[in-house]
Input
Amino acid sequence: MQNRIPPLREIYLYLTYRCNLSCAHCWIPPEGNQEEIDQKILISEIEKALPLGLRSVKITGGEPFCEPTLIKLIEEIRALGLGVRLETNGTMINKGITSDLYRLGVYSVSISLDGANPATHDGFRGREGSFQGTLAGIRLLVEQGIPVSLVCALHRGNMGEIEDIISLSQSLGVEILKFTPVLPMGRGKELKEENQLLSAGEILSLFQRYAKYAGVFWHIPFAFWPVDSLRTRGNQRCLIHHILGILPDSRVSICGIGSGIKELVMGKIGEISIKDIWHDSPLLKEMRESIPGKLEGVCGKCIFKSFCLGFCRAEAFLRTERLTAPFWLCEQAYREGIFPLTRLV
Output
């Protein structure tokens, strides 16, 4: 990447800090009283970013459906010729919304499902009734013909329900179920203190047991995947050199991690253009010069480093204050002798 500016392919738009749930692992602080983004300025900046190679916008939150202008915003983004995908907890979806999303050609909706029963899901999501609300939203989207992916935040409290969660997702007719181990970020730090986060050994043991299921993905680095599975798992990459995150208060970061780490904030739209940030940000220049070439530890030795790019640079920076630090799962697995040595130079 050195001396070359890559195309900006996608903007991660964290539309609002507001949310109707209070999830145990959330890493976007629920700062509902903050001034939120001016959508006229937002659309203007997105339009100006088109020559940078922009193709799509991922809208997330908080909970994006807490923003009453969401559908209008999607209409304006689609009018620019951009694809739109959504991340939501699913509880606020109704037939009118699914009709609008279908009409506007939203190409994917990711919904969080963190248990196979109300007790587990509601307990983790912080609101009684959220399980039934989420299932209702999923069913409406599937009935409308909108592609749905389920994302399960994996922790000690639901690790025993993996098989039941897989069965539930299949019965709902969703296309993809992805298990994502909870990281000690945001409220996840409290879960770590309560010993609710899984170790590298536990994650890899569960992965080896359940990865064979069709339509089931695991959000873990490529070094741990069997060779014959790698070709179909490329869509799990964090394309850190091709994305920008816009936070609810108009600040720009590498992703949502900037909501809690001021060092990863590069400016504020309305004060500086996305184009200028993309071309001139010292932080982006540093990333382009150091990732993957200067990745440290086991990530620097991994044969997949040019593809994986160190997996999650937000996690690495939060833990070490270095963009080039190894990803925690790989580092821990290497220390414990369970990292596959065939994947090292």
User: Anything to note?
Assistant: The longest strand covers residues 148-154. The chain has a mean pLDDT of 93.
